Amino acid sequence: MQKLNDIEDINKEKYDFVTKIKPAYQTGKGIDRELIEEISRVKKEPEWMKNIRLKALEVFLSKPIPKWGPDISEINFDEITYYIKPEDRKANDWNEVPDEIKNTFEKLGVPEMERKYLAGSVAQLESEGVYSKIKKQWADKGVVFMDMDSALQQYPEIIKEHFGKIVPPSDNKFAALNTAVWSGGSFLYIPKGVKMELPVQAYFRMNGEMEGQFERTLIIAEEGASVHYIEGCTAPTYSKYSLHAAVVEVYAKKDSKVRYTSVQNWSDNIINLPTKRAWVEENAKMEWVQGSLGSKITMTYPSSILRGEWASTSNLNVALATGNVWKDNGAKVVHAAPNTSSKVVAKSISGQGGMSVYRGLLRINKGAYNSKASVQCDALILDDHSKSNTYPHNEILDESASFSHEASVGKISEEQVNYLMSRGIREEDARSLIVLGFLDDVLKEIPLEYSLEFNKLIKLEMSKMGAVG
Fold first, then answer.
1. Gyration radius (Cα) of the chain, Å
2. Is residue 260 part of a domain?
3. pLDDT at 8
4. Are the C-beta atoms of residues 247 and 219 closer than 8 Å to each other?
5. How many separate domains does the chain show?
6. What are the Cα distances from residue 311, in Å, to 108, 191, 257, 376, 405?
7. Is 460 within the bounds of a domain?
8. Using one digit for the tens of pLDDT, what is the confidence trace for 167-188?
9. How many helices (H) and strands (E) does the chain have?
10. DSSP secondary structure string, 158-207?
């Protein structure tokens, strides 16, 4: 049985530490036209990308802070540092990575995961990728996996064709901000018919306070291709906030399959506002699996646009809100073609005054005949000080469609606790087991090594509430 002190050691040693480096380059605070031009110049980008950035800046400045969700008015865009380059070199061998940076990712387990379980990995610290590699057997088949800045230099025409088409700057204020100041992220291209049996991983690490991380991820799965992309995110704890506003665009082309698993363990000072969306073509399948721990505020709603007949998507989401945390999670699905199908399962846990929210959009367009969709929202509230709200928005515009929505809110059953205690299990451990059982629908979809780590993190959060001994 995992002891409480062991769990605390996992947190302190593995996640809550600061990498002591002197950045190779960083901009000043605040955002304006000069900053955008500086970022583009330092990165030696083509003129067309600089123009995209500048137009996005205009959109960003014209849009107000959203007020329909949690209060994020504390964000002061003039106080944030938007670009921090930790190192001049990019490596494809861990031995080439500077020791302090390499040690950071060693503590996080990234090189070990790559050696044991992955087809390739990308590691980012602050605003830039510091390491990327795809194993030779996949590179020989034409798979490309690297940081986004390198991809822009090496594959500019592919980037130009796909960048900002699924998530345009006009989509929302933070998508516009990302488009204006984006840096880092990952580019993954899988050629036609290539089925990757091993996953790839991108790991994003923030290191300071009052800074922003704005990675851009682009995934293109050609016809008949398949891939599992895993995203990990962490940051140390500070008294002041930092802002994370990523953009993810996924092209799942005909007969392809893409799974995007996100395991986020942000510190409680991070405001996390990403935009993630996929275009899903004929007979393609898009799967979103998301485990969300930590952060001060999270607003994330992975989206799938089912554009081709027989396209399908699933969205499985776990959110844990403990203490002064607001988790505003959900999913968006648009059925834009006949015979499409979708499944959304959202699980949330609130404790110590935490707020969890499911906010979703499910739309079946007229003409998307014989489409099927289901939404399931389950919330577990651990005390009388915590809250859980559900805001579903469902639009069923075709009479032939099949749609179901169910939601439940409950507390830990004392009968279950007493039963487990009668079998010799301590009360604290019994409550922890019940929580993990509640989350099982989603946790079983996370790869084994990651789900084991996620279980430890959940126990750690529960231990803060006195629920794990």
1. 22
2. yes
3. 41
4. no
5. 1
6. 36, 19, 10, 20, 20
7. no
8. 999 999 999 999 999 999 999 9
9. 13, 26
10. HHHHHTTTSS-GGG-HHHHHHHHH----EEEEE-TT-B-SS-EEEEEE--
